[in-house]
Structure of Chorismate synthase:
Amino acid sequence: MSGNSFGRLFVVSTFGESHGPALGAVVDGCPPGLELCEADLQFDLDRRRPGQSRHTTQRREPDQVRILSGVFEGRTTGTPIGLLIENVDQRSKDYGDIQDRFRPGHADYTYHQKYGVRDYRGGGRSSARETALRVAAGGIARRYLEQRYGITIRGWLSQLGPIELEPKQPEIANDNPFFSPDPDKVPELEEYMDALRKSGDSIGARVTVEATGVPAGWGEPVFDRLDADLAHALMSINAVKGVEIGAGFESVTQRGTEHRDEITPEGFLSNHAGGVLGGISTGQAVHASIAMKPTSSIRLPGRSINTAGEPVEVVTKGRHDPCVGIRATPIAEAMMALVLMDHALRHRAQNADVPDSGLELRDLLGE
Amino acid sequence: MSGNSFGRLFVVSTFGESHGPALGAVVDGCPPGLELCEADLQFDLDRRRPGQSRHTTQRREPDQVRILSGVFEGRTTGTPIGLLIENVDQRSKDYGDIQDRFRPGHADYTYHQKYGVRDYRGGGRSSARETALRVAAGGIARRYLEQRYGITIRGWLSQLGPIELEPKQPEIANDNPFFSPDPDKVPELEEYMDALRKSGDSIGARVTVEATGVPAGWGEPVFDRLDADLAHALMSINAVKGVEIGAGFESVTQRGTEHRDEITPEGFLSNHAGGVLGGISTGQAVHASIAMKPTSSIRLPGRSINTAGEPVEVVTKGRHDPCVGIRATPIAEAMMALVLMDHALRHRAQNADVPDSGLELRDLLGE
Amino acid sequence: MSGNSFGRLFVVSTFGESHGPALGAVVDGCPPGLELCEADLQFDLDRRRPGQSRHTTQRREPDQVRILSGVFEGRTTGTPIGLLIENVDQRSKDYGDIQDRFRPGHADYTYHQKYGVRDYRGGGRSSARETALRVAAGGIARRYLEQRYGITIRGWLSQLGPIELEPKQPEIANDNPFFSPDPDKVPELEEYMDALRKSGDSIGARVTVEATGVPAGWGEPVFDRLDADLAHALMSINAVKGVEIGAGFESVTQRGTEHRDEITPEGFLSNHAGGVLGGISTGQAVHASIAMKPTSSIRLPGRSINTAGEPVEVVTKGRHDPCVGIRATPIAEAMMALVLMDHALRHRAQNADVPDSGLELRDLLGE
Amino acid sequence: MSGNSFGRLFVVSTFGESHGPALGAVVDGCPPGLELCEADLQFDLDRRRPGQSRHTTQRREPDQVRILSGVFEGRTTGTPIGLLIENVDQRSKDYGDIQDRFRPGHADYTYHQKYGVRDYRGGGRSSARETALRVAAGGIARRYLEQRYGITIRGWLSQLGPIELEPKQPEIANDNPFFSPDPDKVPELEEYMDALRKSGDSIGARVTVEATGVPAGWGEPVFDRLDADLAHALMSINAVKGVEIGAGFESVTQRGTEHRDEITPEGFLSNHAGGVLGGISTGQAVHASIAMKPTSSIRLPGRSINTAGEPVEVVTKGRHDPCVGIRATPIAEAMMALVLMDHALRHRAQNADVPDSGLELRDLLGE
């Protein structure tokens, strides 16, 4: 495979370019009987959709998804679910002048080297527009995980440049355009972003995503650990440069007595593990954070070369997000949903007959 | 698959438990004609091997690898390479008292929940002893990458608890028992570890690994990006809790003008990308770091429960590494080798006929 | 995966039901730079298309394929190719009376048992309409194989019920509605089919497919042999009950001295092997035949049960092929193209650097 | 992968050459809790083992399998099962004179063309000795299928050259050296084989394998149909040239009214489908037959060429089976076991929650 599929049992294959006629996906392996309609997927698509506030790109895409197969009379049938989103608001002429030059920090040069040919309009296949289909496919996984297992997946912006955001009210992160889990910080974020946009520059961000209600026992040692698959999934999102599970890089300076999560008959006393031990879920919240780089598509000129190897100055026009981290929250949630869904299916394939241990440890963190 | 295989075209499948008769691996997909003998793999195995200094576990395993197939008259034949390492120095009686209790921070509880049954001796399948086979298999990839493409993979310890280590002389990191790239810091490390060992506690670490000589164009967008596959590979190493590519979490506070690596006809002016853009290698050094948690196997008592759900105190006997990060350097190198090898093969499958662009950009970092 | 993808490196994933809004496919792994437009795929689609003569189903589907991605300015870019065919001429009401009963010889009962729910209209996912996408995807493989390697794939009807057809002029099999390689037999076929249609019954068939120009060395021992992958591919076509490579079941009564294909410096003296030895291509014509069962959708009543387990009589209305083998020729060709394409890519991944042996043996058969 | 693994969820990877130190396998995905010891696997290995009668090769290999991992205190743990069989009775000097010449009908030429290098001793990797590991791995699947689902898999020789064998008593096929299901024909088989051995020639055969007790609903449309996966599995056995499911090639001349298996509330009235409809099991006996070519390793001289392209005469020394079909019965059973096991796991991954339909149709064939 050329890397456009994700998952082993719940397999999502996406296609489509930023300025082509449409993007789509095939979702293979969904259990039959799940109630599903297009509106169910639209909620998350709208959260990811551009143009929702002045802080994101002004491209106006309705991102309306059509279900082309795999659903009959309102329920999944177990056959592959075809998804399609048509591109509506392309402005391909914006990209004529990057046809033969490489934007620094962008995939232009690497696609050119790899394939010899590329659809340069809007980044082509390397555009984050592809993630709309991940969000749609992830929405299917999400519904199943919630209805079958009671799993809730929730993400939020945990840092934007210098501004750190505590998860004070993650459940209302959707109510502001930044997915800030701390509503009191929204004015500060707005001010920061307005100044940034004015300057023409961009900024990095940190996004956190968490799943609660995941049963103990999901994840396949040795290579396909739940955390390793999460790392794969999250690092595959455009612009991500780092992934942490649980304590993440804080573990480097922790002692064993501090890091290890002690257990009582009622549950775990802490969750530095991020809900994964030995690659397998513990029953605690599965917790991951990602670092997102500042978008490379900025209007401040940068040094580069063209396809002839000559030095050029690059100024990126088009409509871009000054902080791609903002719209990344629903994407990270979707990728976590895909990983959990895949492991749910893998787990029951092999371990369907394992008797219940009688142990169910709660996450006592913060109680 | 139950997760014991890694790679799509250069596929490594491992088996074996810490205290079983032997561990082994099948390496499928190695090109024919590569000169290979057991001694070639032993060098890295010896670097990972326990008992090399007083700072690692005192289990005495020769970790002598046998090649059982796939090599004929000193060269690979293109058929699968069977590898075997016998266990010699098991002391299984050390583990009798954890048979029915879960060590905090360990995979005991999750294996119990997943499988209902587990080989508790020395951690069984969850033991880091499995990584010996990764190092052996990675050694094959390494040789191929070096001989066919001139790629060098080099790792080092970049932080041990509070002690940060600059890559002053990474090329001699092998010459000290800590894989420190800064030889001047070795006495400080020794002192720290001696005190730690005395205390009975353990500590986290940070390891960095870098590949130079990787051609531009390797990596498969969208999901199987080179960095996503690296994240998967590195996060699958026991005790890893975080992965960074290039600037990693520093990207969160960087501006676009700072992060983007500008290009001149001679090459890239910086490498915040860590050698990967859009999931595809740029030709620069591929650069990754990992966070390793402090080992959970410590002799300081911790609260836990037993299989009946009753509270118990756990003290881990046996012989363990107070800092698993120390021996992780060759493992991280091996995993990077496996990822690069897989993408080398994948790249040429699809892009064998892409004409040379005439562009080859050097990494001008630090020049 | 739930089985809707085919191939390891050239991966085709299909979706869609007979009476849903559309069917589609994602083709992942196509090398960049191949000239491709929709018309290139339409030729084979038209050959498979229903309603071309009175001897096949009278459903009128234009089967017009749209390329939604992966092609830019007339050339493939190396990114996934999205294909879409809309359903136009559904007459779903024909199927109301099989909603709760199982047609004998059909997948109704097995889908019901597997999924608990099914889209009964026109067979839903089990309909041979899905093969239109295989033909489209196979058309891409075919073009590449022809342009890059000079491979020609050609199929024909080799038997229809009792009428055996010799490959007298396989190159003009397209010129008659039966894909008969013997034009003189066409009147006999017409007469047979007219009588059959009148009787309301259906008949089995045998189809042969052959690829010439395949280089020696393609195919992966041990499990993914070229012939094993062909068997998988061909047996996955609706209604196929048997697959033969080369001499096939004639081998049962052959002696070793008769079956083995002797070699001279000019080439092979026979081709009982069907172009594959040890799972790897010999350079001779790759030759396979399939047995197709008579379609189960006939208007002659048959005994069956309904979903309540009660006995019912089933009469299949709708528009069906009295011999599904007739339209199977382009499908078998497409599946052979997909297998060869996948192995072309797999071969060069591992064996890119194998030096030319200097040996190239022709197929001397019939000279 | 280079084709040395089989299965998606129950994955068997084999390694080893005919005259190397050992052959082995990794079996990944076995559910935990299955009682398993080496003796359980030895029964089938002994059935396949050479030298059991004068009618097979006289190489004396004990084929004693060791379980190296994945089993603890007599039960599988869910971790990969490592299997090893050491080679004992190699007589590599027999093969010196085929080092640089290609035996007709053998994989010598194709391996040479593919890899440029080959272990010529005893056929190296292309030797049917590799199938010993398939039998061992299949033995694990078999035990699980029998204990968990009550499935019985049984194979027999259905034709040896001109001698057809009816399945009069398939349950005692093991009691004679030919796996003949008709004990009365054994003297005729002995006579035929004695004359054949004397002549120096070899002969083809037909083997049939059947699984009873398979639940309805296993198999994944569209590509990974149960019958397509069986075709893949069976065609991957050395020397197989054809595969039939159910009526197989007889379907070509059947009418729909004859072929379709009618259904009554008690069950199916016939089984032309071979237990598979639309790629999914019906609950009837899953029935397949294979055609095996006559072994190419015969002492009667044949024309060929050497690696320099010069004409040579080839006489195969060494110890070979004059009819490879005889020992193929346990191999075919093993491959059917692997396919069913894989689909058992795949089925419950996706369809674990499908409610029982209340329908269970027996196979009324022959009642």
